[in-house]
Amino acid sequence: MTNRAYKVKYGLPAQVMYCKLCVMSNQKPNTSVEYLNSDADRTYIGFDAEQICAACQYNVVKFQTNWETREIRLLEVLERYRKSDGSFDVIVPASGGKDSIYAAHLLKHKYGMHPLTVTWAPHIYRKVGWNNMQKMIHAGGLTNLLYTPNGNVHRQLTQLAFKNQLHPFQPFVYGQKNLGPLMSIAFNIPLVMYGESNLEYGDPTGSDEEEMTEQRFAMKHDYDQIKLAGVSANDLLQNHRLTKNDLQPYFPIEPELIHKVGTSVRYLGHYIKWDPQECYYYAVEHVGFEAAEERSEGTYTKHTELDDKLVPLNFYAMHCKFGIGRAMYDAAQEIRNGKITREEGVRLVQKFDGEYPSLYFEESLEYLNMSRLEFDATCDSFRSEHLWKLQGNAQVLRHPIE
Predict the structure, then answer these.
(1) Which domain holds residue 105?
(2) I need a surface site. Which of 114, 127, 246, 317 has the fewest CB within 10 A?
(3) Is the pTM of this model over 0.85?
(4) Distance (Å, rounded) from C-alpha 25 to C-alpha 31?
């Protein structure tokens, strides 16, 4: 599948291939430090000589890991940070989804910790997402701090991120990554525990990280160097009528603040074998977690990423830019965990990936302050020629999964 005759954007691999074990494409971006990396600097999921993706390679390691030994290590870590007076001793970033409910509930009810769950608010809450958040708090017996950024600022940054990078969730990602360490500093609670590791999605580390490296969330505040929504911080201050106070929640944490508190950011998935489907069953059993009534657009599932009405639009934008959609992410993960076969996954990707985000589309367009015509034109402008071709009036993938 060599595409040398076609223009390739964003430093994407010119040759399109799909993992032979799951369905993931080699066009999937790795997690990056969004403040510094431009699209041209991105790296993409690794494939070995047998055309096996890095996430499936990690999956082999995961199934060979001695999880009893890892749990002993978890107990040692928790004991180091546990507080005997009943005050909060671990920050758990939580959306109210199945994975964060599992993490927070397990830490409290199995391991005897005192978690403070913290939430960076969605753009536009879905009712089912809000209801699950309330169940986490009330049925799950968990304390929650909901952080809602300045609505006008967040909307403006989202609009810029969509127009400049076709990445409407980038400002949300800034806040989501920062909030745990930020609240660690605010409440003097050193331990921050996220759920699954990014290794589950194929990030290149060479070995399983026990702690998230500081460079992922901490950085000196250089207003020329740091970018938000594809624009330098100085440009936002000078030309977009934003203030340093407006931008503060989106900025990385100053390193000296991290060192003062001793913030340690970890993944529960390093210590416990992570299975998203089992997290869902756990959340249903212990807090009454609800799946959506309808299938999520762009995929076949009803129980993932239910909090934000802009989620379908975000996955559609990702599909336009990288040729990877929501069904591919879901199917690849379920294949690795033995829930479906690769053949089933291929059919699901073929049927649902890249579905147009109709359900909350008018609200989403209003939030982005654009018409459908502008939306479609922006999405089309970010399509890479090596991935897409015009067939009649429709854009279709040159190399769909088979």
Answers:
(1) 64-270
(2) 127
(3) yes
(4) 15
